[in-house]
Amino acid sequence: MAIRLSLGHIDEFDDTVAQFAVQLGLPSVQFHTPSNLAGDTPYWGVPELRALRERCDRAGLAIEGLENVPAEQFWKIQRGVDGRDEQIENYHRTIRNMAATGYSLLGFNFLPTYVWRTDMNAVGRGGAGVTSFDAADAHRGNALAGYKLSSAPPIEEVIDADRMWENYQYFLDAVLPVAEEVGMRLALHPDDPPVRDALGGAERIFITPAAIAEAARRAGGSPSWGLNFCLGTVSEMGGEPAINEVIDLLGPKGQIFYVHFRDVSGTVPRFSECFLGEGNFDPARVIRRLASVGFDGFMIDDHVPAMVGDIATWGDTSPEAYCSRGRAYAIGYLQGVLNAISGD
């Protein structure tokens, strides 16, 4: 199967979002902690999973996968504190329920304080709204605080990198056998921003291509482990050379499960999100390199600039904000690149 494009990072699915996908000519969707799955259990249950699939089926849209269970179902696992075994048992239930209702892919992150930005209202090309990060301003707090996946209790004692690696290994050892049993694929998102600093009280570990390779090694060759290849995050590490390194390390092994297609201008300790084509990497070169190592999965749009008339950048999860000019621009750009490359 050739590389394909899906409407992704959907937080709330309704008729407007479905129509947006169809108007853009996209055959599938991918979800990010969707509000549609807000059931009354501490895991994703069969009824709501089935209802979401059936709603997408009626709209003529396939579901590529889901990403990130709610923070209240996962934060103890990330931090390695009392109660994580119960959360792992519930994660097992989510995995089994997803498999039972026809899902095969679940993305996850290992960021106890989630994505960190120092400015949610930075100014991009032509006055577009973008987000940015500057390590010198990180002490002021996370400008993304209040987002649905940054809602866990404050960390009282710093969680260092060694402990984060231990927590990650504990999680893999517990969940990969279940994922393998039911045919579920689990995809790790690298740390955004990729700095070791204890932002909010937890040091970050998936911050270099070498660390991503170590994350893969610790999975022991499990067919259920792969990478949610966030190009923007890896671009933050070192631009296109860092992206190429990850592609060459994991691509030939089939360990890149899907791609978040976005970019930034600059690298850590300071960067800003931007339009595709004006950042650190050349989109066409990256797609060609992915194809050359055998990647044949799906790509999604990710964070996008807010253009004239758009409500906000990606901190707003409403369908009205989601169906934006900035997102339509990103999808159209990628469709054009994919069409041009397929004709080479």
Automatic annotation (TrEMBL):
Q: Which GO terms describe its molecular function?
A: ferrous iron binding; manganese ion binding; mannonate dehydratase activity
Q: Give the enzyme class.
A: lyase
Which keywords appear in this protein's UniProt record, sorted alphabetically? Iron, Lyase, Manganese
**What function is annotated for this protein?**
Catalyzes the dehydration of D-mannonate.
User: One biological process GO term for this chain?
Assistant: D-glucuronate catabolic process
Task: Note the Pfam families from the entry.
Answer: UxuA
Taxonomic source organism: Rhodococcoides trifolii
> What's the protein called, per UniProt?
mannonate dehydratase
Name the catalysed reactions: D-mannonate = 2-dehydro-3-deoxy-D-gluconate + H2O
Known EC number = 4.2.1.8
InterPro entries registered for this protein in UniProt = Man_deHydtase, Xyl_isomerase-like_sf
Where in this chain does the entry annotate a coiled-coil region? none
Q: In which pathway does it act?
A: Carbohydrate metabolism; pentose and glucuronate interconversion
Q: What cofactor does this chain's UniProt record say it requires? A: Mn(2+); Fe(2+)
Family, per the entry? Answer: Belongs to the mannonate dehydratase family.
State the source organism's domain of life. Answer: Bacteria
